[in-house]
Amino acid sequence: MSEMKPDSVETEERLLEKEQDVPVEDNDKAYEDSDKAYEDGDKAYEDDDKAYEERKAARQERRRRQKRKRRNRRIVGGILVTAVAAIGVGVGFYGDEIQTFFKEQQVKISQLTASNKKEEKKETAENTKKAEEAGKEETKETEQTSAKVEETPAPEDNQETMTKEEKKIYKRAKLYSQQYNYNKAIKILKESSYYETNSRFQHAVEVYQKKKDSCVSWPIDQVTHVFYHTLIADTSKAFDGDYKAADYDQVMTTIDEFNKITQSMYDKGYVMVNIYDLAKVDENGNMSAGEILLPPGKVPFVLSQDDVCYYHYMDGDGFATKLVVDEDGKIRNEYVNDDGSVSVGDYDMVPLIDRFVEEHPDFSYRGAKGIVALTGYNGILGYRTDISYETRPDDLDQNKVDWLNSHPDFNLDTEREEAKKVAQAMKEEGWVFASHTWGHLNVSQISLERLQADTQKFKENVDPLIGGTDIIIFAFGADLTGVEDYSGDKFEYLKNQGYNYYCNVDSSKYYVQLRDRYFRMGRRNLDGYRMYYNPDLLTDLFDASAVFDPARPVPVPPMGQN
Ligand SMILES: [Zn+2]
Prior knowledge:
Layout: H1 12-21, H2 28-46, H3 52-91, H4 96-151, H5 164-178, H6 182-191, H7 199-214, E1 216-217, E2 224-228, H8 235-238, H9 245-251, H10 255-267, E3 270-272, H11 275-278, E4 279-281, E5 287-289, E6 293-294, E7 299-305, E8 322-325, E9 331-336, E10 342-345, H12 349-359, E11 371-374, H13 388-391, H14 398-406, H15 412-428, E12 432-435, H16 448-461, H17 463-466, E13 471-473, H18 489-496, E14 501-503, E15 512-514, E16 519-521, E17 524-525, H19 528-533, H20 544-547
Parallel strand pairs: 2-7, 2-17, 3-7, 7-11, 11-12, 13-14, 14-16
Antiparallel strand pairs: 1-6, 4-5, 8-9, 9-10, 15-16
The structure holds zinc ion (ZN).
């Protein structure tokens, strides 16, 4: 049954207690400010070929023109007001005839005023249209420029055509710059043998240098960390009323919800960063602060996903069944349909994020993706890689026995080879792996001996497949200590086993602890429970009311009752 309980279920109350210990800072204002800065800065960054100054000058000129027009209108308006006043004064002195005359004049004047207003409206509309066109032009310019890069020589040097090789280098540099790695973008352009003769390369270097200069170092203790469990691909199966439905309703997130959250975070300027960028570790295990350099308005965050093992208990409940690498080298999921046929697609977080970053490279800081936390008892990534599937001890879990009975061709080496291949491909895509303990254990409740035995199982069964890890994401959202610094046997043991990065679950916006020997980070659960009971804790990321999946049974069950 312990397998059934995903993270944070049993610890919710404890976490709520802890939340009171950890001050939740009011940073909404800071976020609003940075949102505004993002909007202001956005235009400047989307185009990387036209120099920032040129566009700024064009914008200023447009503004000056509008200002001049407004001033001219004010002058015309002033003359009209004077005329109306003069006519008004005259009314008292003359008879009906004259009043009629004045009435006619006033009608004319009001018509004139109306037409002037109309004119003004037309002008405003025109200005809006012009502004829109200018915006479009900027986009078009970008498109044209990149199209130009593809097909035609730059206008100022028509002697020169971008060769296939040049285009390749230019594209690589552009991707580096989109992902905020301006140094690398500049380096590969400057180091190429084409740099001296290709004015497009030279121009790009200037632009990247300006962007680099605009970046600011983000305080690493103000980086938020969000996490998910396996995403629900088919809500009718997950919420079918069986004994697991309540758990899924609390701690899982649907694919629809996930996609909306991701889009919202992207729109707000969030950028995925690697936990290894926040803190560095030297060969002696000593930690020091890392550095995140982002343009104004961009906000770093860390992403993780727990239990990416596709446990037996989830079979038939509307979840993906494993991660695979497709023929193009992309990470995908397998999903088993009702009739037993297998679909390959993007049915969980890893491929969904990969696809999103393909579309929006600037959602990833220097190619970073998230942390994938693994247990070992059912294998990893949907592969049955644990030694117990081969040794079949007498006390083997019933669901493993059942699975083995229905898979007579099971071969441990094959499973491990497959898992290793997928893990390698994921690492190349920017994903990193963490231990979630081999047996999904609550570190605050188990003995040191149990922790030691469990860690060794992880090191034997999982580490060889993922190339080892020094990150541990505790199961059940548990932790070694409260907010006070780590100490004691369990920490000394884990540190000695090479773990440097530690994560718990915490609903604070930021919970970051950098000490000489470890880096600790709290993570926020973006799941049914949080969205239903604490939507106010999520407003910096997304609007829960717009995200919450109508397919969820409500009320989401309170913790501790199922
Ligand atoms: Zn877990």
